[in-house]
Here is the input.
Amino acid sequence: MGRINTNVQSLVAQRVLGGNQKSLAQSLERLSTGLRINSGKDDPAGLIASNNLGAEIIGKNAAISNSNRADQVVNIAAGGLTEVSGLLTQLQGLVTSSSSTAGLSQAERQANQLQVDSILQTIDRISSSTSFQGIKLLNGNFDFKTSSIAAGVADYKINAAKYNGSALNVNVLVTGSAQQGGMFLSFGASSIDTATGSQFTVEVGGGQGTRQLTFSSSTSLTNIAAAINSFTSITGAKATVSGTGIRLDATEFGSANFTSLRVVNAGGIAQAGQQGIYDLQASNTAAANTGTKQQFTAITNTKTSKGKDLQATINGVTATANGKTARVNSDFLDVEVTLTDTQARMLGPVGGGSPAMAITGGGASFQLGGNVDIAGKVSIGIQSVGSSKLGTAALGYLSSLASGQGQNLVTGNTDQAQQIVTAAISQVSSLAGRLGAFQSNTIGATIRNLGVAVENSTAAQSVIRDSDFATETAGLTRSQILVNASTNILGLANQTPQSALQLLG
Here is the structure.
């Protein structure tokens, strides 16, 4: 107590005062900024976590903006499709009304053709003018580009594809052949031979309907086949003369299509020898199964032979199939491939040792994830709705209904024209449905999910980074009191050495 060179009590008071002032300064900083972490020294681990969460929040907010932009792009495309769909409906009516050969003058037919030309021109104009910021949406600009199409591929449609690199190979492996429903009618001669005064009457049917036909003795198989084929568009069944019999087939492949036969009156046709009805071989539908013969008189109830759908894998994924068409629909690849008749019956890889096709680019790609990677992207193919693209290679295209073309309403085949229009309506409806599903299930769900993620990430960041004002206010009050007390104590500590001077007298 008698030392004056070193004032330990003052040093202690100074240290405590410095600590209290530092605590006060920290409370003032946190309350003024609203942040618990203002620099790395406040909480190094917390700063790292807060910065990471901040980067994620910014990325997610940008993805929400991208999603909203994608929604607007698809809205514009869908609006154009709505107009095209309405025009196709009008076109369907014009084709139907022009199919009447009686009661419709040539002038009326030509007037209908003028309307058809106007509709086709408008469809092409919509296809080329529907755009977003100058980017055309319905002219095939966002259709996927392909190369190296195998000979066994009759048609294809790529709805979506995501991949890294310059191209994506599409490998199709046929594991089960597609088949048409069919049977073989053997008569043992090039014409039928019924009993005197009797006729051969059958009911031929298919996936579209039935028709009863009657033939007299000595009618050639060629004429019988021609009679059956004259109703093919009604029945969905076709006939082909083969040797001394007639092969009856469904017009289309697949389990939804079939051919049927019911013998209403066998007409006394001989039942001996090879005469009768045979199934086709399961492993080779080009030949009759000789072990399945049935007498004509035995087919009093309808005999039906159903087709089979293709069985295939696409890039290792089991495809869903309808007739000769196989499709896979996943997050990374949505493709639909229709094979030729020969290829659909042939087991093994389409294209031999090469891919069925290669996707080399195209499609509308949107970044809907916060992280820029393949998982955060979505793509959708928007095919052209121009008149030269709507339709199929087998039926023809919508442009063939124009003046001077093969299916025009004045001199063309209106039956074929209607099939083309029907196919075009189906294509536009399918595209509109895909875009609607993309908006609802992909974009809409993504926006909702990202919104929740942003809320939760922001809340987590706030817990780590932001100040708790209740806690900091209490800390401020405490620090203020301690600073005042420390200041007073320091003053007392500085006066303590003066008491040593009293020893000097």
